[in-house]
Amino acid sequence: MTALPGEAQTLVARIDAMLAQAEPLLASGASDEAAYALRETERRYLPDTLNTFAAIPPALRDAGAESMLVEQLRLLERATAQRLTMLGENAQTQFSANGAFLTERFGPAETLPDAPAQIDAPAATPASLVRHILQRIETPGDARPLIERTAAQLGAAFPAIVTVKRGGLFGNGPVEAVALDVPRRDDVLRYALARTPRGDVEATVTRFLRGIKNKTLVVGVDEWSQGLADDLAAYVERERGARDTLTRLFRETR
Questions:
Q1: CA nearest 192: which of 168, 242, 156, 227?
Q2: Where are the domains of the chain?
Q3: Is 93 left (phi over 0), alpha (psi -120 to 50) or beta?
Q4: 8 A C-beta contact, residue 15 and residue 46
Q5: CA–CA dist 49, 241 (Å, integer)
Q6: 149 burial type by CB count under 10 A (0-12 exposed, 13-18 middle, 19+ buried)
Q7: Which phi and psi (to 5°) does residue 22 adopt?
Q8: First CA to last CA across the chain, in angstroms?
Q9: 204 in Cβ contact with 218 (< 8 Å)
Q10: For a pLDDT cut of 70, what percent of the chain falls above it?
Q11: CB-based contact 61:69 (threshold 8 Å)
């Protein structure tokens, strides 16, 4: 590789830096003269200048040749700076026009209600992560979506402790029951939803002590949900894997 004079090396570095700054603007699809000139400077003008200088036999590569190289590179540097400025100004104009369009489309920001506060997933408490999942399940009235959504949402969030029973000849029909075996300090509570012959949903909580079924309570869905939320939050607090899964789902469903 042909060694360049010190000033030429500095100019090449400056041109390369400006071309690097132009890359995001060029990638956005700019197609005016400034964009064309910058693309050609990178593809052809700068390499051709350096290659032409390198083609001069070393014996003839004197101070005059080096001076001509510096002069040509200085021209390229100034032209590149000018085109980069033009491209940046065009981007600013387009950005401003986009803001005007959004204001015309939706109205000024001060006339719109504030957006609800978002929870930062890494800082979210186990209780807030669990509530986020349960809120996606809640649906008024129709029992079928409730049990189907419970199976889908909680099955994805807590695969290690969820059991889903489906109807149909091969077990691929509608969800008939879903249960979560939530470990606690001294026992396990099974929170279950099951479709009844009448077509509605029955919510139960069963306590298992040392693996032995102790007692089953039939409760309202609201009471069931509240108890499940509290016990799942404590479970997530203890189980790092469960918390990581909930955090991932939280980010995916925001």
A1: 227
A2: 6-111, 121-252
A3: alpha
A4: yes
A5: 59
A6: middle
A7: -75, -20
A8: 53
A9: yes
A10: 87
A11: no
Please, how many CA atoms are within 13 Å of residue 57, restricted to the half-sphere of its CB?
Answer: 2
Distance between CA atoms of residues 74 and 53, nearest Å = 14
Query: Treating both helix axes as pointing N-terminal to C-terminal, what angle do 63-106 and 6-27 enclose, rounded to 10 degrees?
Result: 20
**From CA 2, how far away is CA 49, in angstroms rounded?**
13
Report pLDDT digits (tens) over 113-134. 877 655 555 556 777 777 777 7
Report whether 220 contacts 226 (CB < 8 A): no
- Contact criterion met (CB below 8 Å) for 196 and 172: no
If you search the block for the tokens 């032209």, which residue do you land on?
79
The pLDDT, as a whole number, for residue 23 is 86
How far is it, in rounded angstroms, from Cα 112 to Cα 131? 27
pLDDT band at 38 (very low <50, low <70, confident <90, very high): very high
219: enclosing H helix or E strand? strand 212-219
* C-alpha–C-alpha distance, residues 40 and 46, integer Å: 8
Do the Cβ atoms of 109 and 44 come closer than 8 Å?
Answer: no
Identify the CA nearest to 90 among candidates 150, 28, 179, 136. 28
Count of CB atoms within 10 A of residue 128's CB?
A: 14
Provide φ and ψ at 112, rounded to 5°: -100, 150
Q: Are 76 and 41 in contact (CB under 8 A)?
A: yes
In angstroms, the CA 216 to CA 104 distance is 59
